[in-house]
Amino acid sequence: MAVEFVGMIRTADSSEIRPPSGPAVDRDYLRRFAQAHEEAGFDRVLIGYHSWDADGFAVASYAAAHTGRLGFLLAHRPGFVAPTLAARKLATVDQLIGGRLAVHVISGASDTEQRRDGDYSDKAARYRRTDEYLDVVRRVWESEEPIDHEGEFYRFAGARSEVKPVNGSLPIYFGGSSADAYRVGGKHADTFALWGEPLAETAEQIAAIRKSAAEHGRNPDELGISVSFRPIIGRTDAEAWERARGVLNTISSRTSGSPGAMLAFPSAERGVGSQRLLDAADKGERHDRALWTAPAKATGAAGNSTALVGSPETVAQALLDYVDIGVTTLLIRGYEPLEDVEDWGRHLLPLVRQELANRS
């Protein structure tokens, strides 16, 4: 079976243990970072979306110009660009980079974060808007004739686009853990993205997502599932755990002992996914074969923040445990971003792919 590996690129060298330094957009670093993922054997890289960060459309175009095979997963928040324009923008980038684009749709968990770009809608409305937005985007891609639309959030007449994605449509990834996320993602997603919870809880979420897909008349077995982790590897399990404790100590020193201090929005606005990670941490630091929840607790679960800790062999088997319950995409990013990608390309990805090849 095929499993997709997705990494994550940024325009500067920073992480929870590495304070930003230098320019916000470092072209040389971005180029090296994208090329490192390609050389390591990743299928795609995620380009994240934050209210303070570089524009993802431009980042994808630049990184694609310096790679040949690597795919790009562009995070996109509905509501700031009209869906008719977004459809053309996405299709244009996909054409220019040779069909290597996918889009990761994020409705937005935090009111504070949304308001930084002028969106004052509540969370329920944001999910309704996302539903309508994706309906429109797909219609623009699929229609050869001008289309009209009148909905709750958007109204237009005679919309059309001469430019289409290379393959007619883009793969749509969708994230969230709330009932609204299951409902909208079950309708629209090609791949539904989750953060790294224990196996039992992840299996429960997969079942809920597939149930929603079936309720929308889709084949639930055709829905891809992505899970995100922060692997920490060493030559041995003991060495990996020593490194993990160093990572946690650095995170804790940066947060001054205040869990959640690294959040970009108030802790009261945590999404359901963040709260689920904190609930798992409350049950214990270690779960299953190698899952470690302490970094999630230390950061207030600000983003995908659970780790898999161990030797390459241990972490590879832990990743395969998730594949065994239905996961099709593994999204991994490191605390030492560039160095970790190079390390995983030598020691981790080949182990997973070899085991999958042995099973076929």
Task: Give a brief rundown of this model.
The chain is an alpha/beta fold.
Model description:
- It is an enzyme of class 1 (oxidoreductase).
- GO terms for molecular function: oxidoreductase activity.
- This protein is α/β, with parallel strands linked by helices and 360 residues long.
- It has a single domain, classed as Luciferase-like domain (TIM Barrel), CATH 3.20.20.30.
- The protein contains 13 helices and 14 strands.
- The strands form 3 sheets. An 8-stranded parallel barrel has the order 1-2-3-4-7-8-9-14, surrounded by 7 helices. It has a 4-stranded mixed β-sheet with strand order 10-13-12-11, sandwiched between helices. The chain has a two-stranded antiparallel ribbon with strand order 5-6.
- A hairpin with a 3-residue loop joins strand 11 (286-287) and strand 12.
- Helix 1 packs across helix 2 (56-65), helix 3 (83-96) packs across helix 5 (123-142) and helix 5 (123-142) packs parallel to helix 6 (179-188).
- The longest helix has 20 residues, at 123-142.
- The model is unreliable at 257-263 (pLDDT under 50).
The major β-sheet equals: 8 strands, parallel, barrel
End-to-end Cα distance: 6 Å
Q: Cα-atom Rg, whole angstroms?
A: 20 Å
The H-level CATH homologous superfamily, spelled out, is Luciferase-like domain
The total domain count is 1
Report low-confidence residues grouped into runs of 5 or more. 257-263
Taken in chain order, the helices and strands follow as EHEHEHEHHEEEHEHEEHHEEHEHEHH
Count of helical regions: 13
Q: Regarding CATH, which class?
A: Alpha Beta
Counting DSSP E segments of at least 2 residues, the number of strands comes to: 14
Which secondary-structure class do the elements indicate?
Answer: alpha/beta
Globally, the shape reads: globular
pLDDT averaged residue by residue: 94
CATH architecture classification? Alpha-Beta Barrel
Reading side by side through the largest sheet, how are the strands ordered? Answer: 1-2-3-4-7-8-9-14
Helical amount? 40-55%
- Beta-strand portion reads 15-25%
Protein name: LLM class flavin-dependent oxidoreductase
EC number: 1.-.-.-
InterPro entries: Luciferase-like_dom (IPR011251), Luciferase-like_sf (IPR036661), SsuD_RutA_monooxygenase (IPR050172)
Organism: Saccharopolyspora mangrovi
